[in-house]
Amino acid sequence: MKKKELLEFIQNEKLDTIMITTPKNVEYLTNFACDPHERTLIYALNNKGEEFILCPKLEEEDAKKSTNDITVIGYLDTQNPYEVLKKYTSDISKLGIEKDHLTVSRYESIKDVYNVSEVKDISSLVRNFRKKKNDKELELMEKAAYYADICIDIAVKNLRVGITELELKSIIENEIKKHNISKMSFDTIVLFGENAASPHGVSGSRKLKENEYVLLDLGCYYKGYASDITRCIEFGKVGKFEKEIYDLVLRANTEAIKAVKPGISFAYLDKIARDIITEAGYGKYFNHRLGHGLGMDCHEYPDVSEKTKDLLEPGITFTIEPGIYIPDKVGIRIEDDIFVTEDGCKVLTKYIK
């Protein structure tokens, strides 16, 4: 719980109240996990140190069980949630909000209800708390990665000529449930052969043939923390060209991982991998950033790209996932989950490459 740091921030910025509306940030700060869908969810903290969770009425009891010393306020679908919250709080002149998340219409409703005169964007506040994982968080992320490795193994053991992408996807997601994993990090991607040339292609009715690559991009949630792995599995014996592309992507992945240590920039990591692919003549086919942050969200800070000058610090977790995608021919991506240590890194995903 970061209440002390949040309260210091409020007082230093001379704010009356902050409102956190990103569900994962609410969970991080309060231990209350909730997907409100289209409804409003707020964690509010004022300059007196008073805390509130505003949630849909149907989530109220779960919120009370999940939190301690926080006033939980439930509202009905027929009520204006901000009017309900105001019964427990006073007018707010200076308000901190997450502009990255709060919609314009909801912001305008809050401003009208509370007579807000000044707003400060606090989008980066909780992000900066979340970017460095502690020992407990690392343990959970290692377990999430472990189960992602198991998913790849499940897929490999079920490869056969004629199985469709959707059939293999279904097997992976059903079998991992036997390990008490109830939620994938995102919609599992299974692509065969030339279909993998679409980086985020949708699994379909394409049947597996001999002598082609199978791209598997997936992850698991374990106690609130996500993993994300991509492997390209050789089914049979692929052609020389396809194997050369695979080896090139593997080298970009490996060299970027070797370079990970505190003090270098994310842009530098991206450059290492991109230069390897570009110098081999395939730069235009590497059409995305090198990776992304990983934690309670599958995609979070940092953005591992050439534009990100921020420096690596111990405790930050992110992915390294170079790829080459040649339309109608081949698509290769190799992705690992990385934890920055004091003098290098720890690779959380272990499945053979």
TrEMBL record:
Domain Peptidase M24: 139-342
InterPro entries named among the record's database cross-references: Creatin/AminoP/Spt16_N, Creatinase/aminopeptidase-like, Creatinase_N, Pept_M24, Peptidase_M24B
Example GO molecular function: aminopeptidase activity
Keyword Hydrolase: yes
Signal peptide location: none
Start and end residues of each Creatinase N-terminal domain: 4-130
Gene3D superfamilies, alphabetized: Creatinase/methionine aminopeptidase superfamily, Creatinase/prolidase N-terminal domain
This protein's UniProt keywords: Aminopeptidase, Hydrolase, Manganese, Protease
Transmembrane segments: none
Family to which the UniProt record says this protein belongs: Belongs to the peptidase M24B family.
Full protein name: Aminopeptidase P family protein
Species this protein is from: Streptobacillus felis
